[in-house]
Structures are given as C-alpha cells and as structure tokens.
Amino acid sequence: MKFLCLHGAASNSDILRSQLTPLMYELARTETVKFHFLNGPHEAPPYGGLGSQHPGPFFSFHGGAYPNVEEFVSQLQDLSALDNSPEERCRTTSMEHATNYKPELTVRYVQEYAKTSDAGPFDGLLGFSEGASVAANLLLDQERTSERPFKCGVFFCGGPPFKPGNGGHYLADECGEAIKIPTVHIFGARDLGNFTSLALKNLCSSENALAYEHSQGHEVPRAPAVTKRMATLIRKAMQA
How many Cα atoms occupy the beta-carbon half-sphere of 64 within 13 Å? Predict the structure, then answer.
C-alpha cells in the first residue's frame, strides 16, 4: 500500500517524515507499505516555535494568515472547560483566519498530484493537523464521485473538512457519517483541540473508524509501545 502524506500548517514534508519515522519502521516490519510526502502549495512563515527547531522553507495547504498563537491557545482552553459536543465546540471556535480558505482548490491540487505523480497510484491518505483536515476533504469529495482511489485514511490530530466560502466545517450532526472507508484517528489527551479529532471521527463510518487517544499533546508520539499500538490500528484499516 502507498500512502500520500500531508503535513501540518506552516510545516513541510521533511518535518512530517521525521515525525513519522518510528511508525514507518514499525509498519515496515510486517507490511509492504510506502509513504510519499507532498508539500502544500503555499509558502508560509513558521508557526509558533517551529522555525527555531527546523530549517525551512515552510508550506501550508491553505493560504492566508494564521491566528495569534497565544490567543488561539486561550480560546481552546476556554472551550476545553465546556461540556458540549465536539461539533458545537467546532462551531464555537473562531475560524476568522479560515474565511478566505478555498478548500475546493486545495482538494484539486492534491488530486492532480495524486493522479499525475510518478510515485503513485496511492491507496491511502495520511495527514497531520491541517493535512488531516485536507485529507478529510479529499475523502469526503471522493464519496460524491465514482472514482474512489483511496481505500483508507489515517488522521493525526485531525479536524473535520472545511466547507467552501465561510470557514465552517462539515459536521456529523448535519451530514451524518459521510466518510465510509476505513479510517484511523489518533489524538492526544493533552491536545486542547482534540475535540476537532472527535468531530472528524464522528463524520466517519462508526463501523470502520478506529480511534486511539494517547497521553501527549498535538504531536505524533514516538514511544515504542505507543508506536506499536498505532501501527496495529493502521494495519487493521489497511487490511479491512
């Protein structure tokens, strides 16, 4: 199986490859699996402290500015104290920075690459953070067509796909379980925004969605025992 891998906001393919290295080695022990990494189309300044940890350039799949880190974290802290559904929290989260997103163009960018790349064809999509949301947009789009090249999706710290035009999300309490293929949802207990991962999981078929909450934050965990657990779930989705 070949996975097309999509990095997070203001990041790049090398960073995601580094994040996934232990998991890739673990999966390769028992599976014939390849990972190919795609940079987003928009060059972007590093977000948070990323620029001091990794060399650029940095890219995003959606263009436009990102919210102030401190203000966004404060908003997520307030939301984490609420006792409402993941979908309601997604609606409450300020997404002013996303009002100029054009998810249909982002989907087209990835679809064209997947169709024309010499590294393809790809059987699965894997995304981290923004890349996971983009992957969800692609999987939702393929549900509406007769072409269904992707057989499974793996989401790290994911979020529901964006609607065009207003920065809103496709959510399960409006759309039901709209993504039918096998999916894996991996997120951290200490990630203040993990309700977005739950909202994405709810949008996927309950029969085919596997979830794992680890003890860390907005990251791909690297501890050996956790890596083995993640690999087990991904194998199940690959073999479904």
Answer: 15
Give yes or no: 83 in active site.
no
How sure is the predictor about 148, in pLDDT bands with cuts at 50, 70 and 90? confident
- More confident: 74 or 201: 201
Tokens of 237: 């989705």
Rounded average pLDDT over 69-91: 80
Q: Is 78 a catalytic residue?
A: no
146 part of the active site: no
Degrees (nearest 5) of the Cα angle 121, 125, 130? 135
CA distances 41 to 15, 130, 148, 230, Å, are: 16, 13, 23, 29
Residue 181: helix, strand or coil by DSSP? coil
Residue 52 has pLDDT above 70, yes or no: no
Mean pLDDT for all residues in the chain: 91
Per DSSP bridges, beta strands 42-44 and 58-60 are: antiparallel
Q: Which of 185, 191, 197, 214 is catalytic?
A: 191
Active-site residue (options: 11, 60, 129, 197): 129
Q: Which of 62, 169, 214, 218 is catalytic?
A: 218
pTM for this model (two decimals): 0.94
